[in-house]
C-alpha cells in the first residue's frame, strides 16, 4: 500500500471473531487499525495487541453500533487521533459487528427482531454514514459489509428469519450505496460467509456443528482468516474496480 491508511473495524474484539482476524490482516498489510466493539476489556486488549505488532498503530474505542450517539462519539475520537497524526486518515470501514437469532419465527418477539435488525443492519448504516464524509473528502475509500449466506439462502445455517432479513438488508444497502457513491472514489462491497469457526453460533452442539460441516461441499467450516483475507482484498488498491459486489465465502454451500 503506497499511502498509509486506517481501517475502522466494528466487532473486532471477539477472541474467535472475524473482526479480530481482519484487524490482524490489515496490520500485516501496513494499515493502522481502529478497533470498535461493545466489549471494553476486549477493545483495550486487542488495541494493545495490535500496537505491539511491529510498526502498526492502533486505537480502540467502545461503541454500540446500534446507537447513533455512541457511533458519533467513536467517529469524533478517531478524528481526533487522525488530526493529532497518531493515526493515518481513515481509508476503510469494515462492518463486522453482528448478532444472530436461532429462534423459530413464531417464537420470535418484536424485541428480538428489533435488536437483530439494529445491530446487523442499522449498525452498518450508522457506522458507514459516520465515517463516510472524511473518505469522500479525500477521494478514496472502501466500505466492506458483513452479510451472510443466510441472506441468500433464506437461513438454513443457524440464524433464522430476523438474522436472514437483517443480512439481506445489508446486501441491498451495499448495492444501493455503491451505485450512489460510484463517482466519489469510494467502493462498497459485501461478503457473504457461510459457516465460519466463530462463537456466533452460541448454544450449538457438536452434533449440529458436524451436520453443518457435512452439508458443505468442501467438508468443513471456514476459518476466520479465510474470511478476513477476502475483506482485506476488497479494501485494497487492487480492488478499485469492484463495487456493489457480493463475495461468496461458503465452501460451495450456496451456488448461484
Automatic annotation (TrEMBL):
The keyword Chaperone does not apply. One of its GO terms (biological process) is fatty acid elongation. Coiled coil: none annotated. Residues 5-194 form the Ketoreductase domain. It comes from the Bacteria. GO terms for molecular function: oxidoreductase activity, acting on the CH-OH group of donors, NAD or NADP as acceptor. The keyword Oxidoreductase applies. Keywords: Oxidoreductase. Transmembrane segments: none annotated. Belongs to the short-chain dehydrogenases/reductases (SDR) family. This is NAD(P)-dependent dehydrogenase (Short-subunit alcohol dehydrogenase family). It comes from Nocardioides albus.
